[in-house]
Amino acid sequence: MDKTVLPSDKSIEDRISQLPDEMLISVLSLLMPKEAFRTSVLSHRWKCLCPFLPRSLDFDGLYTMWEIERGKKSLQFERKKFLQWVNDTLKSCRVSTIDEFRVCFQFDDGSKSHVDGWIDFAISKGVKRLELDFTATDPFKDASNFYRFPNERFTSDKTCIKSLTSLTLKYIRVTGELLEHFLSNCPLLERLHVDNSEDLVNLNICGSSLKLKYLHIIRCLKFKSIEINAPNLESFGYVGKKIKLHVHSAPHLLDVRIGSMYAFGSLSSYLYQLKSLSLAVHSYTYEGVKFPEFRTLTKLKHLKVTVDASEGSSLLGLIPLIEAAPFLHKFVFELILWEINFPKKARKVKKYPNEHLKEVEIVGFAGRAIDIQLVVYLLESAINLEKIIVNLCAPYVVGIPCPRNIRTTAEYKGAREAAMRLKENNLQELSLL
């Protein structure tokens, strides 16, 4: 048997440390901040380089938050440790500019002095993409205690942040006045995403010089109205209660995400030019999902529909929407199913050949009459279908590091068996997740 002879310690040559500083920094900059700084133990030379590494600072605590929610870790202890990690990293950072600054962890106004300092740091370094995701693990957490963005730091002196191209704020109290200030004083701002802001009430997006391409306002419960006159806007999303929505001008709008049917009226003159449409609807009655009539969506290529539905309801009301898009390429359907039963009757529907639909994804498949009917329709009408993905997980746990067990063993087994029966019907392209 061959024996591997290891070189002695004296014969080991550290060729990596002999590389030029520029090359070492380039390699280490591909790592997460925590990982990059851990490499400083390798040599004194590497330790000297680390402060100059990060052009992108991404402090991601998503996995830790799920551990906290599951009761495996303490929020108070982990928050203190997270604060220390961010503060220590920023103290040792010597770069003159950064491209991205992102923090994902649960913070509230109790950590305001720390977070205010982080924002000042990011702005002073000419940050391009700023994201503060303070998503609460407790959905019933008092929103009045959410971190309040320091409006006075920006609106009082009309600060012009020339470098900022993207701003994402989640579970943060921010006013419409401040957002409008950013739009007016950040000439390169192209992306604005606000999620769960207690202070956002009204917003006016207006200006011929606006670079804004992406605008999403999600679940801001006190939001009342928005005016849009944005010549470069390509993607618009709104999920929340009914508001006054006025889209005066959005000639380049291609992608829309809406969480209520009423928004169709305000966007009706732009639907024909869309390439991507995502919408959420409710179906708690026997009649099921219904859509208003609208003109043919000749440019629509991607359609995503999320439905909150009862078991006895019907999803066949989605068919007119699917057939209104003759060139639809991909259809994603997400089902959140509630156990409310109605008398079941056989429903018949005319099937028109769909020549362009290539890919279908069903998320939250339950294997009940409500979703089996829709899947059968798609299989029979999409004559050139290449792939169908059936995901048994509920939509709101897909992508979560530690998904909760939201289905009983019997429910999961029943859904899987129903999906396998579909696959047995000469459906070789079905992928089961």
UniProtKB/TrEMBL annotation:
Q: What is the protein name for this chain?
A: F-box domain-containing protein
InterPro entries xrefs:
At1g61320/At1g61330-like, F-box-like_dom_sf, F-box_dom, LRR_At1g61320_AtMIF1, LRR_dom_sf
Q: Where is the F-box domain?
A: 13-49
Organism field: Quercus lobata
Pfam families xref list: F-box (PF00646), LRR_At1g61320_AtMIF1 (PF23622)
Which SUPFAM superfamilies does its entry note?
F-box domain, L domain-like
User: The organism sits in which domain of life?
Assistant: Eukaryota
